[in-house]
Design brief:
This protein folds into two domains: about 200 residues, Rossmann fold, CATH 3.40.50; about 80 residues. With about 300 residues, the protein is an alpha/beta fold. Helices cover about 40% and strands about 20% of the residues. This is NAD(P)-binding domain-containing protein.
């Protein structure tokens, strides 16, 4: 298949591309710069990977490539401009792809998150639209099956990680340990966060693209790790202390988004995904990554 991939040079994209190439697909990867183009060209055969320098603001470019390819995998998201701005752009891009692919029967994959559904949810659970935009975007994506689009939602683990760079959530935990904030790495009770190595998640994208039915949700989760264990593992490498955040109510209120994340108990079901697609996560676990990472990883 000819695949159009946004966010091609990011953590997910650079792990999706090798699996696409290994399984005989070709990929056009949307990147923002020539430097990023060089990154993805190094991931495989030059005949299988075509970098395309552009942005999500170039709607004509997105439409033409969606129409000229057999599948679209949308991984790009603007995290630097703030959650609402990035989420609005993500939804607009999904709608754009939906209009471009209507009636084609082609695959369109959206990147979502397991944090959007309650604890214990399986792949049939539907996210509930509310204060965040991403649940709405997930609902919109799944509804595209009614326009003869093979719409697929990949719900990622809270920590889709690799040793190249620390995940943003662990970076936030370390940031909270600053003296002008909590002064320690926080956790709440026995809450767990889901985790998956990015290479395993990358393979699942490709497996789902190849054979998922329209309106399918898959859970890209390999393990569940107590936030307390994450905090203690980070403390072991950085020298920070750890603490129960909910006992420090005044400072806890200043944590913003991290305060919300700490309250999530993110254990979801994955059996259907694994059995249906023959997906067997084999990548390094999150705590093992902390043990093996260089000191620069924690800066």
């Amino acid at each position: 298949m000819k695949v159009f991939l946004t966010g091609a040079s990011g953590r997910l994209g650079t792990h999706i591309i090798p699996h696409l190439v290994a399984r005989g697909h070709t990929v056009t990867g949307l990147v923002r710069s020539q430097a990023s183009a060089n990154v993805i060209k190094a991931l495989g055969s030059s005949t299988a990977i075509t970098p395309l320098v552009g942005s999500l603001e170039d709607t004509d470019l997105l439409i033409s490539n969606a129409k000229s390819h057999d599948a679209v995998i949308h991984c790009a998201m603007d995290h630097k401009s703030g959650g609402d701005i990035g989420a609005k752009q993500e939804q607009a891009t999904i709608k754009l792809f939906g209009d471009a692919l209507e009636g084609s029967g082609k695959a369109l994959l959206m990147s979502s998150g397991t944090g959007l559904v309650p604890k214990g949810s399986d792949e049939t659970a539907r996210s509930t639209p509310g204060q965040m935009l991403r649940p709405d975007t997930e609902v919109i994506t799944l509804g595209l099956k009614d326009k003869n689009i093979r719409s697929i939602v990949v719900r990622l683990a809270m920590n889709t990680h690799d040793i190249a760079n620390i995940h943003i959530f662990e970076g936030m935990l370390l940031g909270a340990a600053a003296e002008d904030k909590l002064g320690y790495i926080p956790y709440i009770g026995d809450n767990v966060w889901s985790a998956c190595h990015a290479d395993d998640a990358g393979l699942l994208y490709v497996l789902a693209m190849e054979k998922a039915e329209p309106g399918t949700v898959v859970h890209a989760v390999a393990e569940f790790v107590k936030v307390k264990d994450i905090a203690e593992a980070l403390a072991k490498r950085t020298g920070f202390k750890t603490g129960e955040a909910s006992k420090d109510k005044d400072k806890f209120a200043s944590l913003g988004w991290l305060g919300m994340l700490l309250q999530w108990d993110n254990e979801v079901k994955t059996q259907w995904t694994k059995e249906t697609f023959g997906w067997e996560p084999k990548g390094q676990g999150l705590l093992e990554e902390f043990t093996d990472a260089p000191d620069s990883y924690f800066k």
